[in-house]
Write a structure and sequence with these properties.
heterodimer; A: alpha+beta; D-amino Acid Aminotransferase, Chain A, domain 1; seven-stranded antiparallel sheet; B: Immunoglobulin-like; C8orf32 fold; 3 domains; 20% strand
Chain lengths: 298, 539
């Protein structure tokens, strides 16, 4: 009994050196590798998208960028001909303010994710909110309107609604990855805190491991019934190269690169994150320290 | 930057200049204040014992009388300062048509209110603050009853109507209990044992010494008179003491005990509540001698009540002892209240508490300063009411937010509306509290508006951005940390320590520097990553 507890305690003391908490992540990864003045290169999605595109990193096609209220009328006119697009604030976190437009609805509106309809003036108001800073702590912001990426059939088969891949890179080299799949319960969002599924991905091979939803292990996707473990992600080498290329495009040493699998163009970088979250450890079933040790070897 | 692989698998950076700077900063922040404190204690005679706060009693005597628009006179004893009790802040309320004067003799002080045409339902209030120490005496066992006393003590040896020193029964009892011979201590012990063994009866009015002896039971004044009679018969000067046992609340009951003159000191004895040669800290002496506490003209329907409240205050010696860099003195010169000084000095400590809760425990809060600021603001109203007003305002803000949702307003005007909601809520709750007679809650409007507005805005933002669950978790975390900050920031001992030794704040800085690079798992993260930390995980 006591021996079992001793063993438990010893394991805990060893393991906690490899599991990164917020404190260790900030001191040893974020502050050590990312200069504060460089944060906007990740936080401002319009800026990072331009930097990524300039470096030849594949990114979703930009339809328009709305930087101020006076541009709203023009942007709305530009959108009239669009069937599908994504609206997002340049400075927001956790997927706040992102609207995915999936097609035209009757009466001149659009159909958006979650089976809602947005009328012309709803879109107008949303864009104004973004520019006004409703999703960026009251700071004036830019609204990005970009193409809605057609997902690789594998992703649609897995979740019924796409998903993205988070790759952690240190000094330009990927060392940990996970797949984030939306569910009906998460409202179509690929954010783990909002109920999306996290699936661990082996960084060497691109094969999925265990899956986690709301902190609980999972075998199959609850909406599609498709098995989530042991799936080979498409064009994995290209994914890793894209992540490296993206990491080289911004002056941040420690980075979370978010990648979409598009049907036509392969992996596309949707955004980069200067302070990627820690839930990836639970999803992969191993601390960041374990991956970093292998990183140091390789 | 080359990484070195360690057994734990982390990349550990080589000690760099920043590490040296870190440890040097930490060292300076720990050593310098320690040296300063040591210097003050060893060379300048600062005493750490003085940082302990003292209990101060605020006493208000409220007297009511019906003067029938005629002449009225009220006289009562008021306490005087001596080596055991310090009386400050004495105030006598202004009473229309009555004049007040104070008279003193060698032992007592009286205050007399007189007036020519005093109306009915007149109230006189007399209030004062008391810092009292209590005292214990040790009587040398070999000390004998002296043959002569100075003539000034003669009146404390003779009998009176209620203290029948020369009565046969008193003298018989004296020899029966063996108090007529031997050293002073032995005699006093015998007298004390007899009087304190009598059952206590809540008799009203005066009981004389002989009656108390015959009945074998008595109230405090009967026991005290018997004690005095026996002591005087035994050749030890003794006198009655009248006063108040100070406990928080409102009371009419006063108390009597005695003092015996031993070896040049008036030594207190309380045969009612088992005090032998000692007086507790909460006994307030109002007068000495066999006196009536109140005297007043008849036919005025006189009544009285003592209201007593307590608060902790810095010991007066601490103020004067901490001479160097004396911020107390500075605040007094600037005529700023001591309460403000306490708040300002404790804010860094409060912020450290917040940092600890956030970075070591992992408790989510709204901002780093906000819980400390709310705790500081709650000082005026008390923790419970402070938290209640935070909740009230947040409830109002959420309600307003819900109502405004359908209006689809832009962000900044929304926040400006919410500030108005905060102000109106505070005014309305003050109004309602005043109607309900909740004085403390009525003071919610004194609760700093800016702090409340920030709290409400943070709650609104987190409600809007992260949803109700996160907003409530953050609110709960904030309130828990507010409570912790409140307890620590209101610790008077800490406040006096920081005002006497401001260099203690360097320790606070050191703690922040240390926590600033502390990379351990937060307590809540052990739970979050529990599956990774368990033994099964790798197998």
């Amino acid at each position: 009994m006591i021996a079992a507890w001793k063993k438990r305690l010893r394991t805990l003391l060893e393991r906690r050196e490899t599991v990164y908490g917020v404190n260790r992540r900030n001191v040893e990864l974020v502050y050590a590798h990312n200069r504060r003045s460089d944060y906007p290169t990740a936080d401002d999605k319009a800026l990072s998208k331009r930097m990524l595109a300039d470096h030849g990193v594949p990114v979703p096609r930009t339809i328009a960028i709305c930087e101020a209220l006076y541009e709203l009328a023009n942007v709305m006119k530009r959108l009239e001909s669009e069937e599908e697009f994504v609206l997002k604030p340049a400075n927001s976190s956790g997927g706040n303010g992102i609207v995915v437009v999936k097609g035209r609805s009757n009466c001149g509106g659009w159909l958006v994710s979650g089976q809602r309809v947005m009328r012309q003036r709803d879109v107008h108001k949303h864009l104004a909110d973004i520019v006004y800073g409703a999703f960026s702590s009251d700071e004036p912001d830019k609204a990005i309107i970009e193409e809605r990426v057609q997902f690789h059939p594998l992703l649609d088969a897995l979740s019924g609604g796409g998903g993205d891949l988070r790759v952690l890179t240190l000094k330009g080299r990927p060392f940990k990855a996970m797949l984030r799949l939306p569910t009906v319960a998460s409202g179509g969002r690929a954010n783990l805190h909002q109920g999306a599924i996290g699936v661990g991905v082996d960084i060497e091979t691109g094969v999925t491991g265990c899956a986690l939803m709301g902190g609980k292990p999972l075998e199959v996707h609850p909406d599609t019934g498709v098995a989530l473990c042991g799936v080979q992600m498409p064009s994995w080498q290209q994914v890793l190269e894209t992540a490296s290329l993206a990491a080289g495009a911004v002056p941040l040493g420690y980075l979370g690169v978010d990648i979409l699998f598009s049907e036509e163009r392969g992996p596309l970088v949707v955004e980069v994150n200067a302070r990627p979250g820690l839930e990836i450890q639970n999803v992969n079933g191993a601390g960041i320290g374990v991956a970093l040790a292998e990183y140091a070897h390789g | 930057m080359g990484g070195i692989k360690t057994t734990s698998g982390r990349i550990r950076r080589r000690p760099a200049n920043e590490d040296i700077a870190y440890w040097a900063t930490l060292g300076v922040l720990l050593v310098a204040p320690t040296l300063l404190i040591a210097y003050k204690v060893l060379v300048n005679d600062y005493s750490l014992a003085k940082i302990l706060p003292r209990r101060e009693y605020s006493v208000t005597l409220a007297m009511s009388l019906d003067g029938h628009n005629g002449r009225a006179r009220v006289k009562t004893f008021i306490p005087r300062s001596d080596e055991v009790q310090q009386i400050t802040e004495t105030r006598s309320s202004d009473v229309s048509n009555m004049q007040v004067r104070v008279e003193s003799d060698q032992t007592n002080r009286v205050s007399i209110w007189t007036g020519g045409s005093v109306p009915d339902e007149t109230t006189i209030e007399y209030s004062f603050d008391v810092l009292s120490t209590g005292r214990q005496y040790r009587i040398a066992p070999e000390l004998q009853v002296p043959e002569h006393y100075s003539p000034s003590l003669a009146s404390y040896l003779v009998g009176s109507e209620a203290v029948q020193v020369d009565s046969e029964e008193i003298l018989a009892t004296l020899s029966e209990i063996g108090a007529d011979q031997g050293p002073i201590l032995q005699r006093l012990q015998a007298i004390y044992e007899l009087t304190s063994s009598f059952p206590i009866r809540p008799f009203k009015g005066t009981t004389d010494a002989l009656t108390a002896l015959r009945l074998g039971e008595a109230s405090c004044n009967g026991k005290s008179r018997l004690f005095v009679a026996l002591a005087r018969a035994a050749g030890i000067p003794a006198r009655l003491v009248g006063g108040l046992i100070m406990t928080s609340g409102s009371k009419r009951v006063t108390h009597q005990w005695v003092e015996a003159y031993v070896g040049g000191h008036w030594v207190p004895f309380g045969p009612t509540n088992d005090h032998f040669a000692e007086v507790p800290e909460n006994y307030l002496v109002l007068y000495r001698g066999d006196e009536s506490l109140f005297a007043h003209s008849s036919d005025i329907n006189f009544d009285y009540r003592y209201r007593i409240s307590t608060k902790m205050v810095p010991a007066p010696e601490a103020r004067t002892a901490f001479g160097q860099f004396n911020i107390w003195a500075l605040f007094e010169r600037l005529q700023m209240p001591f309460g403000l000084l306490q708040t300002i000095l404790m804010l860094p400590v409060g912020a450290l508490i917040v940092v600890f809760f956030r970075n070591v425990i992992g408790m989510p809060t709204y901002g780093t300063f906000l819980p400390a600021l709310i705790a500081a603001a709650a000082k005026g109203t008390g923790l419970g009411w402070g938290m209640l007003s935070v909740l009230l305002i947040i409830a109002a803000v959420s309600m307003a937010r819900w109502l405004m949702q359908r209006l689809r307003l832009l962000h900044s005007p929304t926040l400006a509306i919410l500030l108005t909601v905060v102000v109106v809520t505070m005014l309305l709750s003050s109004l309602a509290a005043e109607r309900l007679g909740l004085g403390e809650l009525a003071r919610v409007s004194f609760y700093p508006i800016a702090v409340m507005a920030i709290a409400a805005e943070r709650f609104y933002l987190s409600l809007a951005e992260k949803g109700i669950h996160d907003a409530i978790v953050n609110l709960a975390g904030t309130l828990i940390v507010v409570a912790a900050c409140f307890v620590v920031m209101n610790s008077l001992a800490l406040q006096i320590l920081v005002s006497g030794f401001p260099e203690v704040l360097a320790y606070v800085l050191a703690a922040n520097v240390y926590l600033g690079r502390w990379v351990g798992l937060r307590v809540f993260e052990y739970r979050r990553f529990r599956s990774l930390l368990r033994a099964e995980a790798s197998e």
